[in-house]
Amino acid sequence: MSQKKAVLSYLTTGAGITSQYAFSHMGITRISAVIFNLINDGYNIERVDVPVNNRHGRSVKIGRWFLREGDRAIQKELDL
Predict the structure, then answer these.
(1) What's residue 80's pLDDT?
(2) Residue 78 within any structural domain of the chain
(3) Residue 63 burial class via C-beta count within 10 angstroms: exposed 0-12, middle 13-18, buried 19 and up
């Protein structure tokens, strides 16, 4: 399965994806590139900044991408 198919399949469940999740569970090191390609393919994906504490205890923001509500059922040419 391609990275685009894997990410789109995951996003259609309604869950958001972070770079950490993509790396540890899917082996995708550049999730932003995959998201960029999906957006260029016409998928309505939005990024939300989520505050977390880093390993030094400092508050930082990470990105989490979501498929917008109306696009969850769209499978387009990827034939999921």
Answers:
(1) 39
(2) no
(3) middle
Select from 74, 65, 70, 58 the least CA-distant residue to 26: 65
Nearest Cα residue to 70 out of 36, 48, 46? 46
Q: Domain range holding 32? A: 3-72
Number of domains the chain is built from: 1
Q: What is the distance between the alpha carbons of residues 47 and 61, in angstroms, rounded to a whole number?
A: 12
Tell me, yes or no, whether 77 lies in a domain. Answer: no
Q: pLDDT tens digits for the chain (80 residues)? A: 799 999 999 999 999 999 999 999 999 999 999 999 999 999 999 999 999 999 999 999 999 999 987 655 444 444 43
Question: Considering the domain boundaries, does residue 80 fall inside one?
Answer: no
